[in-house]
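Regression test case RT-17, inverse folding.

Input:
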């Protein structure tokens, strides 16, 4: 006869291996009567998450501009996404975790010359604040394959207590690549797992 303890241990092990996904879609954030901009609950599924929560559903009150700026079409799991501008986004929790995959969207490269780019940098930190792992992903207009959003695998971003997200936009001006501003990226379907601190 299998003990209840053994069954629960197996379930916990499977859950830790498979992980779960942050989609933010269970947070009420209607695009009516204005564009949704809800506050993130603290904690949210055990995490403290900073950033701006946006609704990607177009309505008569909230819809794409003529330039196409905004979160439209950036959600792999509609309607909500996490908007990160510059250093505005941090994902943390009291126990160690890992991030293994994320969906990234953006409209920062609209109407810019080929060669302009958006870099998303994810820095995983230990409990003492030291850096454990940095992952950089650069999206270059005219080079990147496929449209937005892009699914990114985060190899080795595990055993951390905090992940800081930095977004930077580089624009081609007069043939030169110039860092012009903080960029904006839209994050969705963030896959996370339990992990040991090491």
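Golden output:
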């Amino acid at each position: 006869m299998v003990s209840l303890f053994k069954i629960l241990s197996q379930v916990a092990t499977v859950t830790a291996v498979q992980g779960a996904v942050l989609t933010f879609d269970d947070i009420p954030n209607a695009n009516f009567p204005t564009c949704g901009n809800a506050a993130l609950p603290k904690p949210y599924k055990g995490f403290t998450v900073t950033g701006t929560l946006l609704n990607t559903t177009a309505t008569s009150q909230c819809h794409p501009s003529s330039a196409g700026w905004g979160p439209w079409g950036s959600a792999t799991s509609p309607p909500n996404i996490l908007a990160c501008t510059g250093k505005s986004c941090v994902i943390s929790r009291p126990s160690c975790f890992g991030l293994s995959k994320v969906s990234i969207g953006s409209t920062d490269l609209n109407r810019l010359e080929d060669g302009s780019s958006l870099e998303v940098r994810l820095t995983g930190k230990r409990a003492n604040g030291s850096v454990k792992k940095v992952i950089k992903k650069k999206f270059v207009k005219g080079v990147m394959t496929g449209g937005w959003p892009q699914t990114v695998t985060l190899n080795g971003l595990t055993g951390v207590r905090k992940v800081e997200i930095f977004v930077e936009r580089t624009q081609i001006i007069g043939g030169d690549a110039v860092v012009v501003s903080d960029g904006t990226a839209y994050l969705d379907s963030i896959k996370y797992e339990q992990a040991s601190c090491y």
